[in-house]
Amino acid sequence: MRAPLGDFDIVRPAPEALDLLVTPVAEAVRGWSGPGEADELVHVDTDPEWADTATFLEHYGPELHDRSANCVVVAGKRGGETTLAACVVLSGTRVDVNGVVRRLLGARKASFAPMDTATGETGMEYGGITPIGLPAAWPLLVDAAVVDLPYVLVGSGVRRGKLIVPGKVFAGLPNAQVVEGLGTGV
After folding, report:
1. What is the pLDDT of residues 59-86, one digit of tens each?
2. CATH class entry, domain 11-185
3. CA nearest 40: which of 152, 135, 185?
4. Is the pTM of the predicted complex or chain greater than 0.90?
């Protein structure tokens, strides 16, 4: 099998790579009910040493820059209550946490969630968080630019490996809201 984008040695449909995924991601793939078929989600094996976006692109090719996305966990606070949410933006942009995210969550203050909160609540590894398999109640904010791409490279829940997902899939994930301008220039 050849990856729909990039040049990777080990490529397979995500349902054939369940043993390489963390439990919440493997369960989401196994019980896939999103748009399209689970086999459209492609797992590519990558070295965990290169998991962070900048080093990943340097190692695997800068041509992936405009076709990769980051999934980050944010915390919105209002009146002593905290709402956790995930945001998916193209890797060349930053999440507009203090503007767009804060307003959409109805929060007085919003910030990136601490690493131990992000990993503890998602069951995923830092540097590999993916929107597939997130806690069901969380809002998922997806930049419109991500949805518009034919395929997007995103984390797989662990630092080793990535998922290549049709952009349209992100709009159909649980609690997804497509947002214009969620990602801002770096």
Report:
1. 777 778 789 999 999 999 998 899 999 9
2. alpha beta
3. 152
4. yes
